[in-house]
Amino acid sequence: MFILVRRICLAVVLVAIVVLVGTSLPTWWGGHFGGYRLLAHMTASGMVVVGLPLYAVLRWTDWLSAPLPSRASTWTFWALVFTGFLTIASMFACMLPSTTTPWMVTLIDFHGWIGATMAVAAIAHLITCRRVAAA
Amino acid sequence: METCKNILGIVGLVGALLACTHASSSAADGSRRFAHSDSDKRYLHHIDLYDLNNRKITPDSDQPYSPKNTCGRCHDFETISHGWHFNAFRSHTLRANAEDSATAKSDDDLEHAHNETVFDGRPGEPWIWTDERTGTQLPLSYRVWPGRFNPESVGISELEMVRQFGGRLPGGGAGSRDERPQAAEPSDDAAPSRWELTGDLEVDCMICHAVSGAYDFELRRDTIGSENFAWAPTAALRLGEIEGAIARLKEGTDPDDPKIQSKLPKVKYDATRFGPDGTVFMDLVRHVENNACYQCHSQRTVTDGVGIDEHFVHDTDVHLRAGMKCTDCHRNGIDHQIVRGFEGEPHSESFASMTTLNCVGCHLGTDFYLDEEEAERSVTQREITNRPGRMGAPMPMHEGLPPLHFEKLTCTACHSGPVPTTAAKGLMTSLSHGLGDKAHRTGSELPSIRGPLFIPDQPMSNAHSDVGDSDLGETHASRVTVARGMWPAYWGEIRDGKVIPLSPEKVYAATRRTLRVRRGFIEEISKPKLSSKQLVEALGDDRAKIDASEYTPEETAKVDAMQFEAGSALFNERVSASLEAIEKELGIEQAVYVSTGAVYARAEPKAAEENAEDAATTDDEDAADPANLLREISVDNPDAVSMVSWPMAHNVRPAGWSLGATGCLECHANDGLIFASTVTPQGPAPKAGEAASMASLQGLAEGDRQVWNQMFGGRKLYKALVAVSLAVLALLMLAGFATAVGRSGNGSSGSESPSGRAA
Fold this sequence. Notes:
The complex is a heterodimer. By secondary structure, chain A is mainly alpha-helical. Chain A is 84% helix and 0% strand. Chain A has one domain. Chain A has 4 helices and no strands. The two termini of chain A are 22 Å apart. Chain B is of the alpha+beta class. Chain B starts with a helix and ends with a helix. The A-B interface holds A 30, 32-36, 38-39, 42, 46, 49-50, 52-53, 56-57, 60, 63-64, 67-69, 71, 74-75, 77-78, 81-82, 84-85, 88-89, 91-92, 94-101, 104-105, 108-109 and B 364, 371-372, 396-404, 406-408, 663, 704, 707-708, 711, 715, 718-719, 721-726, 728-730, 732-733, 735-736, 739, 751-754, 757-758.
């Protein structure tokens, strides 16, 4: 049961990351972030906010009792958790009514870069997990 | 010896030529040809006055003083007179000259064609030709701005424009003969030009530079109203009394007729204004005082059903409260190209620092919109004058405001204009409603201007086209700004499917007998005063006699409905008759009346006749539908009948009064004023247009907006969820780290531990 939930969580996070990257791509070339693209980005971010901690807790608690997967899988897991934390935190900071415009610009820039890194970590984690499963 | 003489002669000639060239080139900016005081102190002007013929004025003179011949002795009048305000009635001349130079075939042609740049910039308030008698509010401009009509294309002459609007024009442009378009050679039997009688409305330096109280704007307007254009500067300074009025002389009067010469206005100078040396003290300042600006740039708000809002409820612009003057930002050099203060306004290279004289420039710096790389390359890194904080401008933090807002909104959208309410209010401006004149205003006078509107800003124009053409220059990303708007109302004709306004003066002459309006189109036709009998019918005997202010809401609704019915019937009858009269008298195939976005034409003759017969033979009210006398038609140039808008920049409200100061939900809620407030098209016709929300004017679908609003509605909950999520992830990372440390402390290689591996 837990395995199913965990897999669903990972699937949700991965789908959300695909949406997040897809919707933010035009801004990498100076595009405008608004309208339905921003709406989709915000909806997907909600999926990550809920799905990532849930997946992380289930994954980690599972590892505490189960035989360990590969070293690579562990590294990518923590990379996903860490970059996910920073991505969510930078978004959260922007939502606070105390962040000034220059800070917000910096945070948004950081959010973009760390979000991209998170996407890479997520892909890497998926690949390493699948290798473990195949083995 | 002879050779030496020749060489010396050539050298002398070259030297003289160089000197002339140098003098003429430096004269353009007025820096060398004229003496300067070059001090911050005020220079006292005890000066001789000169008349139009360059004769010195004495207390015994009877001719008006000429600012050009008086001020122009020491100041570069030629350069000054082409400034922004003076060009208001000159843009068409410049444009024509620019076209001449573009099509010039020879050097000789080019010599005659000036090549001044025509840049009309951001759309401003139009000159609204208002005639209460014919229900006309026609937006005009010589500048090419959307929705405005070029007076020439409407058949309004420069003289008529100066007569109508000269009281709010500082002179120059079409008011001066040097600046008017070159007329074709007049034929011998042509009527003499009335300009010969009125004289020129010269650029009047004192209208702005006189100290507050030294210049009588009211008297100037009256003098211009009497068509004593050339006498206006003298009258306004109260240098003497003007006797006589050109307005009393008939059209076509010959100015060379000796009898007429004796009737021309004469000045009786006040001898006490002249010093012992014959000079007159001109009490003036270099930096123009706010009072001079208010003359043409004041505004009042009007609450529907109540009237003009009291003066004391209005707050001053925060910049003025901080001790600034209008000219601190709206400044100019000798060319008098006053800084208008909008983003993207071009300035000459030598005045590059003027680019910071707008909201963003002063408060955030010119690099604000640049990305990191561009900012590093930008001049701000090198030029101190391009940094924010000019004149002590505070730097706004905009805490919690996503930068996306700066791409979607202008600064003024949130910070400027009257405090917005659920519906746009009525607005009265100096230029359109003659604020400053002593009058009994109610707030319902034409033109009907509404605001604040939150609409996309319009592209700046540098085009050479009239209304209806789409050549409006380079477009830029449109942002929502705060603006005023009005719906044109005029009489026009249909030509090739397009509506074209007719000359208001011709329309008045043609419709006098059919419209039968003495004072106002609205109170006599669209909203006629109900008779006692009608009031009794609507309210009963007892309530019919009470004052309208004591009506209950139901009674008000009943009276309004009855007034609307009566007004509609009168409107149909008289407008239809007037359209017929215009068609006959002006030889037009199809005349129309435009108001509140609708175009009214006469009903098809057959339908109208049948309707009239029905009305005569039956008592059945439904059968005699008065609406059949008129019909609404569509035209191929809807821009000519739709809303005309222009942005407003003042008054700037304090930060705490800006939109969004209390958080996201102030705007991103279903009742957020920047989206949900409405504006109702209003004009002289009884039928008001349908109220439109600002969101619809911004092109936003209501459904989309509501989806967004729902997201903002749950923002607090989402923040809490994110906080929990971050806390869980943080705890997990700590736990993972602790486990890893613990495992490594136990000597584990980590081969069985995830944390150990991670460590």
